[in-house]
Design brief:
Elements: E1 9-10, E2 16-17, H1 45-53, E3 59-60, H2 64-69, E4 78-83, E5 89-94, E6 99-106, E7 112-119, H3 125-140, H4 145-154, H5 158-168, H6 175-190, H7 200-212, H8 217-236, H9 265-276, H10 283-293, H11 297-301, E8 308-309, E9 314-317, E10 326-329, H12 332-339, H13 364-373, H14 383-394, H15 399-406, H16 411-414, H17 418-438
Parallel strand pairs: 3-4
Antiparallel strand pairs: 1-2, 4-5, 5-6, 6-7, 8-9, 9-10
Length: 439
């Protein structure tokens, strides 16, 4: 029985389509019309042309050999070769011959970012590829390498923080002293150091070196306080990197460099005689009032007539070292000096420079000549404040009252004169013993 032949189909020309005939032409389905449900929009000729013109990213399996021979495509300024094995790993080849490794990625918000790994001549291919893999893992875990790098760059140098510190204290009386410490000691050492690179160990070693070079313990402590204050201010201003203060944890060294010199009555008389002969006509008045009031030099040089109440025998110091106003009682000899002070028209200052009619900036030259004439070498103007206290204590005035006159903020500041009070008490008991022995 014969096998039936497979069905065949006749073409319009009478030729057969089937297993023994030619293959039928391909059938192209008619694109769905946009008005029909589920139909895709037709692409315009312009879209098709733009898609054809869109540059494709050159991809390659980046290896040491490829990187060595890779270059910029002809007619372009640079070509980016994307690695096919490490996502985002890119070799940028420039027409100038330079090559750089990058990692390109999308952050958590979808923004495209680029992280520079290093130059071709600065890092090996193996190290660059390993770095790219590590950074890529960081991105996958939700990190952002570029943000961390930007944060490091945003941390300022200490010199910038020091400038901000000085700007914040420019209206304070201590500005000149702070500026000098910054300019001479702190900024030359730390000005070009980033805040996060400053640590307690390095700062402590620097302070030790300052002491070894002959800086007094009090001056070294001032440097420590100023440096720490910069970080405290920076933290309050949200300056990046200032939240970790490198001076914390550095123990404060005990200070024992206080120079205390007390004039005797005979030495004070010699000094008064020397300043009376000074070419600076105001020096005798300044020295006399310092010895009689125990005031600080700058407090007296900045004193105004409006703050002196002769009737109440009181002198108001609006702003003292402690930041608070205080009243200084005026003795009869102090009032006598004030009554002899020269008065200048439209000049509010108590003891101004006669030439400028402004407070003295310095009386150093006249003072140095006077102490030479009085045979008191090394005597400082601040020693007159100590001498005023010693005269009061040796006259039987208690330490509390002396502290009030001097304007001490704490009782501990007045304790330096306690040995003088003991001498006065010793004289009292000796006098009592002598009286008993004579009976």
């Amino acid at each position: 029985m014969a096998r039936p032949s497979p069905p065949s189909t006749c073409c319009p020309g009478g030729r057969l389509w089937g297993p023994r005939g030619p293959a039928p032409p391909p059938v192209h389905p008619t694109p769905p019309h946009p008005s029909r449900p589920g139909a895709a929009p037709r692409r315009s000729p312009a879209d098709i042309l733009n898609h054809a013109r869109r540059p494709t990213m050159p991809k390659a399996h980046l290896t040491q050999a490829f990187v060595t021979n890779a270059g910029c495509e002809v007619g372009k300024k640079k070509t980016d070769w994307y690695c096919t094995t490490v996502t985002g790993f890119v070799l940028e080849c420039r027409s100038t011959g330079g090559k750089t490794y990058y990692l390109r990625y999308a952050d958590q918000s979808g923004r495209q970012k680029q992280f520079k790994i290093g130059g071709y001549n600065d890092i090996t291919f193996a190290a660059a590829r390993k770095n790219a893999q590590q950074r890529r893992s960081e991105v996958v875990m939700g990190g952002d390498p570029g943000a961390q790098k930007a944060l490091v760059k945003s941390i300022p140098l200490y010199g910038e923080l020091a400038a901000m510190h000085l700007e914040s204290v420019k209206d304070q009386k201590s500005y000149s002293s702070i500026e000098m410490c910054m300019r001479v000691h702190i900024v030359p050492k730390w000005g070009k150091t980033r805040l996060t690179d400053m640590n307690s160990r390095a700062v402590a070693q620097w302070l030790t070196e300052k002491r070894a070079k002959g800086l007094s313990p009090a001056s070294v402590e001032k440097l420590r306080v100023l440096l720490g204050r910069s970080f405290v201010l920076g933290s309050s201003w949200d300056v990046p990197g200032s939240d970790r203060n490198p001076t914390r944890g550095i123990p404060r060294k005990p200070l024992n460099n206080g120079r205390e010199r007390f004039l005797s009555a005979e030495e004070a008389a010699r000094l008064r005689e020397a300043v009376a002969a000074s070419q600076n006509s105001q020096l005798q008045h300044i020295v006399g009032l310092l010895l009689l009031t125990g005031a600080r030099l700058r407090e007296l040089l900045d004193a105004k007539w409006e703050n002196v109440d002769v009737k109440r025998r009181s002198w108001l110091i609006p702003t003292s070292k402690t930041g608070k106003p205080r009243h200084v009682p005026l003795s009869t000899p102090a009032l006598a000096i004030i009554e002899t002070l020269p008065r200048f028209k439209d000049c509010p200052w108590l003891v101004p420079n006669p030439e400028t009619r402004l407070p003295f900036v310095s009386i150093k030259h006249g003072w140095q000549r006077a102490i030479r004439e009085a045979r008191l070498p090394g005597l400082r103007l601040h020693d007159l404040r100590h001498s005023a206290a010693s005269f009061m204590v040796n006259s039987g005035v208690d330490l509390f009252a002396v502290g009030k006159v001097l304007g001490h903020a704490s009782y501990q500041s007045t304790q330096r004169y306690s040995h003088l009070a003991n001498d006065t008490l010793l004289k009292a008991v000796e006098a009592g013993a002598a009286k008993q022995a004579a009976a």
